[in-house]
Design brief:
Elements lengths: L1 H50 L13 H39 L7 H28 L12 H14 L3 H10 L2 H8 L3 H24 L2 H4 L4 H16 L3 H21 L2
Length: 266
Amino acid sequence: MDISSGRAAPALFLRERFAIVAALVGVTAISWLYLWLLARDMDEMAGASHMAGMMMSAGPTAWSGGHFALMLAMWWVMMVGMMLPSAMPIILIFATVNRRKRAEGKPYVPTAIFTAGYLLAWGAFSLAATLAQWWLELAALMTPMMRTSSAVLGGMLFLAAGFYQFTPAKYACLDKCRSPLDFVLNNWREGRVGALSVGLRYGFFCLGCCWAVMLLMFVGGAMNLLWAAVMAVFVLVEKLAPWEQWVARVSGGAMIAFAAYLLMQI
C-alpha cells in the first residue's frame, strides 16, 4: 500500500502540473484569438469607413459606457495574453508549495486564486490604459487602430521607457519578478484571501517592472498583434534570461536612441 502510494504521488504531481500548464496555455491562446478577431473586425470597419469617405470627417469616437467596457476588456485580455506566459514559473511554484502544505494537512487553496490576484494587478493597468486611450482620442492623438498619431508623443514614450530601464525602481521590481521561489516563500499567506493578496502583490511588482514598456503599445498600435507579440517576448526574455541587467541596459539604450531618432524627424 505504501509502495503504491509512493508511486502514485509523483504521477499525481505531474498530472497536476500538466493540468496547470495546459490551462495557462489555453487561456493565453484564447486571449490571442480574441485579440486577432477584434483586430480583424476593427481593420474591416476602418477600411469600410475609409471607402465611404468618413475616416477624416467622423472625428473622435463617442465613448459610451459600453464602448468603455469593450476597450477595458480589450486591454485586459491583451495583458492576459502578453503577461501570463511570463508568470508561468511563479504559478507553478505556488502550486508546488501549496501542494506540499496540503500534504501536511493544511488547507488547500486553488492555484487559480493566486493567478486571479496576479491578473487583477494587470486589470488595474488596463483601466489606466483605457482612460489614457480615451483622453488621447479626445485630444485627436490616436488613430483608429489605437496608435498615437503624434511623433512627439511617440518619441517621449520611448524616451520615458528607455530611461526607466536604468532606474532603481526597475531593478527592484525586476529582481522580485526573477526570483519567484523566494517571493512565494517570503510572502506566503494562508487561505484564499492570502493567496489572492500574494498574487496581487506579485502582479504589482510585475507591473512596476513592465508598465513603461507596455505604454509603447500606444506607439506600435494596440491592435498591432505583431507589435504586441514582440513586447510579450521582450518581457519574457527580460524576466527569464540569465543576464537581466544587460537586457535592461541594452534595451534601455536602444529605446533612448530610437526616441532621439523619432524626435529628430519632427
